[in-house]
Automatic annotation (TrEMBL):
It comes from Pelagovum pacificum. Gene3D superfamilies: Divalent-metal-dependent TIM barrel enzymes (3.20.20.150). Residues 24-247 form the Xylose isomerase-like TIM barrel domain. SUPFAM superfamilies: Xylose isomerase-like. Keywords: Isomerase. It comes from the Bacteria. This is Sugar phosphate isomerase/epimerase. InterPro entries: IolE/XylAMocC-like (IPR050312), Xyl_isomerase-like_sf (IPR036237), Xyl_isomerase-like_TIM-brl (IPR013022).
Length: 248
């Protein structure tokens, strides 16, 4: 059974959070995905989710939080009832690494995830486009990150994969046994939606969601997280994107 979640980062420019959660619940969302800016008071965050009738089944946590305050990371995840914690990115100044650097980073990531795994949760990495940079060999950064440990799961962002010039289906096939969720994100036709950084509501861009959905289902990948990095109207994005997924 497919579950549809919503990455709350999409709504960071539309406070307050309780209004966002109410809006999402009204559109039929049952699950949300948290992000690092929301974890200052996990008890209050859980209360807001409970009041809206949604669960935070997954969450993004920065690498610094996991490395510097692992106890807080575990407590937050447990308080929210998360099943998986994903590291969403590293800063632009940290991304210019060679193959050896990415290989070392994969091992660093695996070490940072041990407290999460020891707590009985899944742990992994969420990609952008920089993980597909050509390093001059057969392996790309995403391969070297995944090689850090078999315990590193992946939350494959299909939109960023496509924007990097890669075929999402090929990468779904490559890591099907490691993918525990996908970010469902659409790309606007060239030259459109410049005010939204070139992203589009799901089903209103260039991605072939019927084909992608069919392929994901064939691989047993059924946890979809809707995301738009910079919507001008988060209710419009959530509503139209949910309508698209329900129609598949």
């Amino acid at each position: 059974m497919t579950t549809i979640s919503y990455q709350l980062y999409c709504s960071r420019n539309f406070p307050p959070l309780e209004d966002t959660l109410s809006m999402l619940a009204g559109l039929g969302f049952k699950e949300v995905e948290g992000w690092g800016g929301q974890y200052d008071d996990p008890v209050r965050l859980r209360e807001l989710c409970d009041a809206a009738g949604v669960t935070m089944t997954t969450g993004h946590m920065g690498l610094a939080m996991l490395e510097d305050t692992p106890e807080k990371a575990v407590t937050t995840a447990k308080t929210m009832g998360m099943k998986a914690v994903m590291v969403p990115a590293i800063g632009p100044d940290e991304r210019n690494m060679d193959a050896a650097g990415w290989e070392a980073f994969g091992k660093r990531l695996a070490e940072a995830g041990k407290p999460i795994l020891d707590a009985g949760l899944k742990f992994g990495w969420h990609n952008h486009d920089f993980e597909f940079k050509d390093l001059g060999g057969s392996d790309l950064p995403l391969d070297l990150i995944a090689a850090g440990s078999d315990d590193i799961s992946l939350e494959l962002d299909l939109g960023w994969t496509k924007r990097a010039g890669k075929d999402p289906i090929e990468w779904i096939d490559k890591y099907a046994d490691r993918i525990i969720a996908v970010h469902v994100k659409d790309i606007a036709p060239e030259g459109e939606n410049a005010d939204e950084d070139g992203w589009a509501d799901v089903g209103h861009g260039v991605m072939d969601w019927a084909a992608l959905n069919k392929h994901l289902q064939s691989k047993g990948i059924t946890h979809y997280v809707l995301e738009h990095d910079n919507p001008s109207d988060h209710e419009r994005f959530a509503r139209r994107s949910m309508e698209t997924l329900k129609s598949l």
